[in-house]
Amino acid sequence: MLKLLKGNLLAAMLSSVIVGLGQIVKGDSGKGLNLLLLFYFIIPVVLAALLYINGGLFLVAFGFSLIFSCMIWGYNILDAYKASTKAPSRMTRQKKDNFHEKIVQDI
Fold it and tell me: From CA 41, how far away is CA 13, in angstroms rounded?
């Protein structure tokens, strides 16, 4: 059972519960935070502002935001499932040492 919950499937399951969490777990925290902020902050703030400005405009925007939110949620799950399993590349210790030696040689 635990073997099934590794990698892409786990990320997709987490993303279905909280938007952006699958991307954060897989190592793509920038994309995950952007999706999280868009879904849980930007869309509600825009709707609240439209409700304050004009009720009729709010109803139209609310309909569009429901459709847009469902599209974001679906994209989020699909992206978490299809994303590469390896974290963003980091310099290995040997590459760091070579990099520092090259800088010292240039000085």
Answer: 22
Query: pTM score, two decimals?
Result: 0.66
Using the CB atoms, write b or e for 67-105: b if 16+ within 10 Å: eeeeebeeebbebbbebeeeeeeeeeeeeeeeeeeeeee
The letter for the amino acid at 56 is G
- Mean of the pLDDT values across residues 14-40? 90
The residue ranking higher by pLDDT, 91 or 31, is: 31
Contact by Cβ (8 Å): 33, 20: yes
Q: Tell me the helix, strand and coil percentages in the chain, rounded to 5.
A: 80, 0, 20
Residue 82 binned pLDDT confidence (cut-offs 50, 70, 90): confident
Domain that holds residue 24: 8-85
In a domain, 16, yes or no: yes
Establish if 102 belongs to a structural domain: no
Q: Is 103 domain-assigned? A: no
Number of domains in the chain: 1
Q: For residue 2, tell me if it sits in a domain.
A: no
